[in-house]
C-alpha cells in the first residue's frame, strides 16, 4: 500500500511538472477533478478540503468556551453557562428565530 502510494505520488508529481504554468494555478476542487486515476491523491485532497472547515469550527468552539468560562464563570450557575455556550455556538440558528429573545 505504501509503495503503491509512493509510486502514485511520483506519477502525480511528474503529471504536474509537465503542465504549462497557467494550468498549475488551480484550486483544490479543480485539482480534484484531475484525480480520476490517482486514488490515494484523491483521498489526500478530500482530507485537505475537509480539514479547513473542521479546523475553523473547532477553533471557534474552543475560543467561545474559553471566553465564556473566564468572563462569566464567577457570576452564573452551571446551567446558565451551558446555555450561553450553546447559543454562541449555534448563533445562526438563534439569529433566524425571531421570537427567541421574547421566549427568554
Automatic annotation (TrEMBL):
Transmembrane segments: none
PANTHER family: 52 KDA REPRESSOR OF THE INHIBITOR OF THE PROTEIN KINASE-LIKE PROTEIN-RELATED (PTHR46289), DUF4371 DOMAIN-CONTAINING PROTEIN (PTHR46289:SF14)
Domain HAT C-terminal dimerisation: 26-92
Lineage start: Eukaryota, Metazoa, Ecdysozoa, Arthropoda, Hexapoda
Species name: Psylliodes chrysocephalus
Molecular-function GO term, any one: protein dimerization activity
InterPro entries associated with the record: HATC_C_dom, IFN-induced_PKR_regulator
Protein name: HAT C-terminal dimerisation domain-containing protein
Organism superkingdom: Eukaryota
Amino acid at each position: 500500500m505504501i509503495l503503491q502510494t509512493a509510486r502514485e505520488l511520483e506519477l502525480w508529481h511528474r503529471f504536474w511538472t509537465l503542465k504549462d504554468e497557467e494550468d498549475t494555478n488551480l484550486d483544490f476542487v479543480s485539482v480534484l477533478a484531475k484525480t480520476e486515476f490517482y486514488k490515494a491523491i484523491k483521498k489526500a485532497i478530500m482530507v485537505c478540503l475537509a480539514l479547513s472547515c473542521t479546523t475553523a469550527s473547532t477553533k471557534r468552539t474552543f475560543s467561545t468556551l474559553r471566553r465564556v468560562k473566564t468572563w462569566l464563570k464567577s457570576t452564573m450557575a452551571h446551567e446558565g453557562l451551558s446555555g450561553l455556550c450553546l447559543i454562541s455556538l449555534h448563533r445562526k440558528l438563534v439569529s433566524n428565530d425571531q421570537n427567541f429573545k421574547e421566549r427568554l
